[in-house]
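Dear support,

Our group has been running a series of protein-ligand predictions, and this particular one with coenzyme A is the one our PI (initials K.S.) wants archived with full inputs and outputs. We had some confusion internally about which version of the output was final, so please treat the block below as the authoritative record. The input we submitted was:
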Amino acid sequence: MDDLDDLAVFHGDADVVRFVPWPVRDRAATEEALRVKLTQTGLVAHGQWLVLAVEVRETGTVIGEVLLKWASHRQGEIGFAFARSHQGRGYAAEAARAMLRLGFDGLGFHRISAVVIDGNDASVRLLGRLGFRQEARLVDGVHFKDRWATQLVLAMLEDEWRERDGAT
Ligand SMILES: CC(C)(COP(=O)(O)OP(=O)(O)OC[C@H]1O[C@@H](n2cnc3c(N)ncnc32)[C@H](O)[C@@H]1OP(=O)(O)O)[C@@H](O)C(=O)NCCC(=O)NCCS
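Confirmed final output from the archive:
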């Protein structure tokens, strides 16, 4: 719960939550969300999300979070959100790579996907840097924040991971 102040900074930022499923959260709503996150500490069954806080090593400030869902048999889904003050510095890529390592090397996943709302260019760029390929573009694939939105499905396979970061 010590992370609440840090979390409230980006959970309450309309720019950060624009393309994620949650609304802009006030402190009370962030606290409620944090209570749920505190239970999401392991991946032992399909359907579970592991949610990890990302800290600046020197200060312990929480600047973002990275998520991994155990979606189905050896399949995962990744997500991330970072405080605006700490975007554009490579932190999200570093955290996402750690999560991919956990998924592919730790849990033996075969494929990890990400579903992005079309227009979330920073997210698509990040996934491209990580080595994700676009698999699909679902026109009006979801009703998202009061409008129909097009979804992009991107993914990486275990072989592709090993050819890149996994080999280093
Ligand atoms: C998606 C999101 C996590 C991407 O964060 P990010 O900080 O842009 O991603 P990275 O950590 O890879 O940082 C890379 C950027 O930092 C720049 N950068 C600066 N210094 C850097 C360094 N030392 N190392 C690496 N990158 C650096 C890169 O050039 C790159 O900028 P670019 O995308 O304009 O080319 C962030 O935009 C976010 O939190 N968005 C809101 C939540 C959201 O939409 N989540 C996704 C839902 S699917």
